[in-house]
Specification:
The chain is 60% helix and 0% strand. The longest helix is centred in the C-terminal third of the chain and has 37 residues. It is extended, with a radius of gyration of 24 Å. The N terminus is likely disordered. The protein has 2 domains: 107 residues, Orthogonal Bundle (Fumarate Reductase Iron-sulfur Protein, Chain B, domain 2), CATH 1.10.1060; 117 residues, no CATH class. The structure holds iron/sulfur cluster (SF4) (2 copies). The site of one iron/sulfur cluster has 14 residues, from helix 5, helix 8 and helix 9.
């Protein structure tokens, strides 16, 4: 893991001005899910009493909801530096709140805004997952069978021997052709991959990735471009085949 640069540290330590705090809160409040997730708050603490993360971390969903409900801009920004990343997204709080709030949903909105604003907390939390993101976004899979080896999973102990088997033969025996590979858990075809790229572009996922990890963004965009070219080549081949079939039928 790379250590934060001096510039990063300086940015993290610079307190945001009022305008920036308002911009962050506006982004949270204008999120399409905000009004549905926050209806008011009794400050009763039921959410915190049932929250598993509150038992283990310096974190309270009641505090998060109160910060938003009272529009405490400094407190909201402060919570976004660490606390919001403690939520396990289990939504026990949403099932318990007498106001029908979803503190976990509000945390998710705040996380999206933290990413949008390129906060260091978002970069720190997501950095260890960069390899996972690369794998997911370029193959559609997180874990490939050929990654399940004693070296990669020493914590499995003797159980790892159960998968240390002739995987290539075993995978060939699976009836679905999409699973007969070791490179990925299942094969995602080119058309589906291209559709996923479009979704990530249209929903802003790629913009978010560029904000938090520009190097990873560049690598993924290169791979996306290659796959788009491959897909276009495949489409061109289909057109040529159709033309040839048409010529044969004319004769
Ligand atoms: S969010 Fe709901 S459960 Fe939590 S303190 Fe407010 S009213 Fe109570
Ligand atoms: S969703 Fe988050 S805030 Fe809500 S109970 Fe689960 S861990 Fe706690």
């Amino acid at each position: 893991m790379s250590s934060p640069t001096q510039q990063d540290q300086t940015e993290a330590e610079t307190p945001p001005d009022r305008e920036e705090l308002e911009e962050i809160f506006d982004d949270i409040r204008s999120h399409p899910r905000y009004d549905r997730e926050l209806n008011g708050c009794l400050n009763c603490g039921i959410c915190t009493a049932t929250c598993p993360s509150a038992h283990y971390y310096d974190y309270s969903p009641r505090e998060i909801v109160q910060l938003l409900w009272t529009e405490n801009l400094e407190g909201i920004h402060d919570a976004m530096q660490e606390k919001i990343w403690a939520c396990a997204q289990c939504y026990t709080c949403a099932a318990r709140c007498p106001f029908g709030n979803s503190p976990g949903g509000l945390v998710m909105v705040m996380r999206e805004v933290a990413i949008k604003h390129g906060m260091e907390s978002a970069k720190d939390v997501l950095r260890p997952f960069s390899r996972v993101m690369l794998k997911v976004m370029t193959t559609g899979n997180q874990l490939a069978p050929n990654m399940i080896t004693p070296e990669h999973f020493p914590d499995w102990g003797p159980n790892i021997s159960k998968v240390d088997a002739p995987l290539n033969i075993l995978r060939k025996a699976i009836p679905m052709p999409t699973l007969q590979t070791l490179e990925t858990a299942w094969a995602v075809n080119l058309k589906t991959s291209i559709e996923l790229y479009t979704i990530w572009e249209e929903t802003g996922v790629l913009d978010q990735l560029e904000t938090i990890d520009e190097n990873l963004f560049d690598v993924i965009v290169d791979i996306m471009d290659e796959k788009r070219e491959d897909y276009q080549d495949w489409l061109d081949e289909q057109d040529e085949d159709d033309d040839e079939d048409g010529d044969d039928n004319d004769e």
